[in-house]
Write a structure and sequence with these properties.
The structure is a single chain. This protein is mainly α. The chain is built from three helices and no strands. Helix 1 runs antiparallel to helix 2. The longest helix has 33 residues. Helices cover 84% and strands 0% of the residues. It starts with a helix and ends with a helix. It has one domain. Keywords: Membrane, Transmembrane, Transmembrane helix.
C-alpha cells in the first residue's frame, strides 16, 4: 500500500510540474498547488504507513532484517 501511495504521489508531483508549463490560465497556480500539496501529503502518509508496518512487525516478534524488505 505504501508503494502505491508513493507512486501516486510522484505522479501527482510530476502532474503539477507539467501543469505549470501547459496550462495558460488564471487557475494554473491553484492546480499546481493542489497537485503538489496532494503529492506531499501522499508521500507523508506512505512514510507513516511504512513506519507503522515496521512497528507492527517488531511487536509481532519479527527480526528487523525481515522488516527491511
Amino acid at each position: 500500500m505504501n508503494i502505491l501511495l508513493t507512486i501516486v504521489a510522484i505522479i501527482s508531483l510530476i502532474g503539477g510540474l507539467v501543469a505549470s508549463f501547459v496550462i495558460q490560465s488564471d487557475i494554473r497556480v491553484e492546480i499546481v498547488a493542489t497537485c503538489w500539496i496532494g503529492g506531499f501529503l501522499l508521500m507523508g502518509i506512505a512514510r507513516i504507513l511504512m513506519r507503522l508496518q515496521r512497528i507492527e512487525g517488531l511487536l509481532a516478534g519479527r527480526s528487523p532484517e525481515d522488516l527491511s524488505e
